[in-house]
Amino acid sequence: MIAYEVPLSPTPQVFTIALAGVNYQMTVTWNPFMASWCLDLADSSGNPLVLGIPIITGLNLLAQYAYLKIG
User: Fold this and answer.
1) pTM to 2 decimal places
2) N or C: which terminal CB in the chain sees fewer CB atoms within 10 Å?
3) d(CA 38, CA 52)
4) Cβ–Cβ under 8 Å, residues 11 and 27
């Protein structure tokens, strides 16, 4: 397994990233109810794949979504 580290800034962001040769759209936003940053992942057309993943440093954020074969 290849680990990807995505540098982020402390503001909401939307960007495209290639993982294992496939382009995805990532949206990072602050969730005030969870008091944490969250990640939404969509395909290159903007169709949602996974929404509201809490960003926790040091963890594989996509491990529980292995069935989607992302990266």
Assistant:
1) 0.81
2) N
3) 5
4) no
- Any idea what the Cα angle at residue 17 is, between residues 14 and 53, rounded to 5°? 60
**Nearest Cα to Cα of residue 37 among 63, 10, 16, 15:** 10
* Average pLDDT of the chain to the nearest whole number: 88
Strand order in the sheet with 48-54: 13-19, 22-31, 36-43, 48-54
Residue 71 CA from chain centroid, whole number:
11
Give the three-class secondary structure for 63. helix
| CA dist., res. 7 & res. 22, Å (int) | 19
Determine contact, residues 64/56, Cβ cutoff 8 Å. Answer: no
Q: Specify the DSSP class assigned to residue 44.
A: T
- pLDDT > 80? residue 10: no
Rg (CA), the chain: 12
